Each structure stands twice: as C-alpha cells, then as structure tokens.
Amino acid sequence: MTLKRPRAAMPESIRRELDASGLMQSFKARPPYQRNDYLHWIGRSVRTATRRRRIDHMLAELKVGGVYMGMAHRPSKPK
Known about the structure:
two-stranded antiparallel ribbon; globular
C-alpha cells in the first residue's frame, strides 16, 4: 500500500507509551495508513493536554480493537 502522505516517524515518547501499555503489537498490526494517521494526528497537537488526550485516545482504540478514529474497523476487531 502506498501512502499519500509522507510517512511519520514515531517519536520515542509514543514508542515508550506503546511498549509500556503492551500495545505495540496492536499498533504494528494496523494498516500503514492508520499508523501514519495516528502519528500525524498526535504530532499536530500544539498543547500538551491535547497531545495527551490524543495519545490516550489512540491507546484506548488499540486496546479495545475494532475501532479506528471513533469508527468501526472490522479487520482490527478481536476474534
């Protein structure tokens, strides 16, 4: 799959959050466009509180599975 946006580099702080929460595999299992969208979305936040809220949102979606940016995502739903 070719991404239309430039690929976002994963900040070390997000890598640590994913590792600490045990969700790195869930993140890596998502399609490239979703991983890229999450990283760009978090990276665009200006305020620290907004960044925290977005990271928490991503982690919650990865934990529950089956949802992406508040929308149903059947391929990532746990079986």
